Amino acid sequence: MKIISSLLVILTLGCKENNPDAKIVRQEQIKVKNDSVLTVKVDTTLTKKDKIKVIQELNQIIPDTTINKKLFLSNYETLPRFYSNYKSIATIDRIRESPVVIFASKSKIEYLIAYQYEGSAKNSFDCFEIGYLKSEQNLNKVNAYITSENNFKTETDLSLGLTFEGLESIKGSNYEKTEKGNLTILTYRNTDLETSSFLKRYNMPSYFMEFTLKENKVIKIKFGFDYP
Fold first, then answer.
1. pLDDT score for 187
2. Nearest to 37, CA basis, from 68, 62, 59, 67
3. Do 109 and 160 sit in the same domain of this protein?
4. Structural domain count, the chain
5. Quick one: pLDDT at residue 148?
6. What range does the domain containing 139 cover?
7. Which pLDDT does position 25 carry in this prediction?
């Protein structure tokens, strides 16, 4: 990653020259409404230990937290903007490892599964999963709430049909790769509570993004906090 490499070079030169006024780095993301965005500012007065922590944080995945910039992770107040008849929805058991609410796109081509973990507030979702309805036959047997959305995507335009190259250009190459038959699964993680201000903000131990690809295209996206 170019930002990480540049930062390491600057830190190395700074140590050799003993120049506390050397510029290190400033990385900022665009803010979203519920402040679910990571902001990193490196002060030139930081100790070497603190600078190492900054490098570790920059190695963490920059998290996505929204569906269509309307429905936010762990924020029940955003549901009405995404689904106006929200008072009618109910969770379903035994579809996934936790109770879920199942939404569908207007065309009924895509599904969105919103996970509600034990102990979370009603309509506060801790994980999202996007996929094609035709590939999940068990979802056709349960009630899915039809939305007015044409498709589902994150705030960085991660969506179904994205190519591997497109995904890597958005999220980088710091992933774990596994192969399952004709499927490729790429997993990005934030797991260090000490160095991730994002995890501290939500008071959660870890965050992940998992992408399932077939024939070089994304066919499923799952992201959010790990199930406790």
1. 97
2. 62
3. yes
4. 2
5. 97
6. 66-225
7. 31
Q: Strand pairing of 100-104 and 145-146?
A: parallel
E strand intervals along 17-76? 26-28, 39-41, 66-67, 71-72
Q: Are residues 26 and 134 in the same domain?
A: no
Burial zone of 188 (CB within 10 Å; 0-12 exposed, 13-18 middle, 19+ buried): buried
Q: Rounded CA gap, 180 and 210, in Å?
A: 14
Query: At which residue do the structure tokens 């006024």 appear?
Result: 21
CA distance 128 to 224: 6
Question: Are 94 and 190 found together in one domain?
Answer: yes
Query: Which tokens hold the place of 133?
Result: 């309805």
Same structural domain for residues 124 and 104? yes
pLDDT on residue 46:
53
| pLDDT at 155 (0 to 100) | 97
Across 50-86, b (16+ Cβ under 10 Å) vs e yields ebeebbebbebbbbbbbbbeebbbbbeebbeebbeee
What is the per-residue DSSP string for 91-107? -BSSSSSS-EEEEE-TT
- What is the pLDDT, as a whole number, of residue 193? 66
State the 10-residue block means of pLDDT for the chain, 228 residues long.
43 42 34 37 50 46 93 96 95 93 96 95 96 90 93 98 97 95 95 76 90 98 92
Taking the CB of residue 6, how many other CB atoms lie within 10 A of it?
Answer: 12
Q: What is the sign, positive or negative, of the torsion defined by CA atoms of 48, 51, 57, 58? A: negative
pTM of the model: 0.74
Rounded to 5 degrees, φ, ψ at 163 are -80, 165
The amino acid at 65:
T
